[in-house]
Amino acid sequence: MDIQEHSGPERVIDKIRNESAKKICLIGQTYSSIKKHMIEGPSGLLAEADRRDIKYTYNRFSGEVRFHDFNAVCKCIPMWPVTTINHPYRFKNRRFDFIWCDRVKIDDKHDHEFKKYLMLSVQNEKRILYST
């Protein structure tokens, strides 16, 4: 097993810089937690982009981060509250180049479906990063 010693933001920025990912999905428990931990936090996506001098625009309302120089976009999908729209099936027919899941807890009933639709979204298990 190949174990990577990189944080989620480092992996996302690496994928963007080597142009292997144009459409990235950030999955967390809530919009608030995605913004607080994955995007705006001291070790979040924006801090990593700043450390590497990569220009971006951030829409705080939608949680969307655009990296114009690389024609890449990161979109947020929260897991809570569980509604029809937030059901695992919402990944059906969506395509992402890379998915970063952070602090995601799913009940046993939906766990298999969630992972199945994540796989359908990226077509390759190596394009999904789970972090805690």
TrEMBL record:
Q: What is this protein called?
A: Uncharacterized protein
